[in-house]
């Protein structure tokens, strides 16, 4: 029975379609029953000890050639994809920090990788308030509620990765915006936007590893995935006006999931 259990597991791991599992089970179950019938006949239903010994050696040799690995060997694709969802904060320096309080943010990001290169798009959205009055091309008033957002595109290169840790420095381009209610009656909401460079580091602590050998019904692929605790720290510099500029220091912590397709060896 153990011999054919291994054969069945080997076959199931390599199915092209999950719908074929029942048919594969029926075929191997029949082979197993035929094998048992052959043993019963040749051993005279267990009365021929010499033949039992020969069968014992025969089955032991066959077991040596049929793998019993819980997870079959596989090769990962060079391409990967993933997503992350985080909570974080941003605080500011210079006149920007004198005007706006730190924010509480929600971050969502997508990433696409090739070997050690990672291309990401991340959206950050948060809320804060105005610290002091600012009369510029647009007027901001102390205590006024404001919204803060960054949309960035970045390229990262993984410098360190092992079974638990992954560190990826990155650089990119971002669009930073503050907006709020216009205190002038019937006026449109006010908004300031700046385009900037950013640089930072992501760190992932891998929680678990999953190998999915059941092929996707749409794309017919199997995959390997890693959920992680994800942290992202980056800095950008904004200059909205001569009297409203400074660095934005942004930190987010949450969860990420990255995956790659795999091919059984």
List keywords for this structure.
rod-shaped, 22% helix, 4 helices, two-stranded antiparallel sheet, 265 residues, alpha+beta, 52% strand, eight-stranded antiparallel β-barrel
Q: Can you walk me through this structure?
A:
The protein is an alpha+beta fold and 265 residues long. The protein contains 4 helices and 13 strands. Strand 5 and strand 6 form a beta hairpin.
Short description:
The protein has 265 residues and is an alpha+beta fold. The protein is built from 4 helices and 13 strands.
Q: Unreliable segments (pLDDT under 50, ≥5 consecutive)?
A: none
Shape: rod-shaped
User: Based on DSSP secondary structure assignment, what is the total number of beta strands?
Assistant: 13
**Structural class per helix/strand content?**
alpha+beta
**Would you tell me the overall average pLDDT?**
87
Gyration radius, rounded: 30 Å
Sheet with the most strands? 8 strands, antiparallel, barrel
| Binned strand content | over 45%
**How many individual helices?**
4
Order of helices and strands: HHHEEHEEEEEEEEEEE
Considering DSSP H and I runs of 4 or more, what fraction of the residues is helical?
Answer: 10-25%
Strand order of the largest sheet: 2-3-4-7-9-10-12-13
N- and C-termini, Cα separation: 25 Å
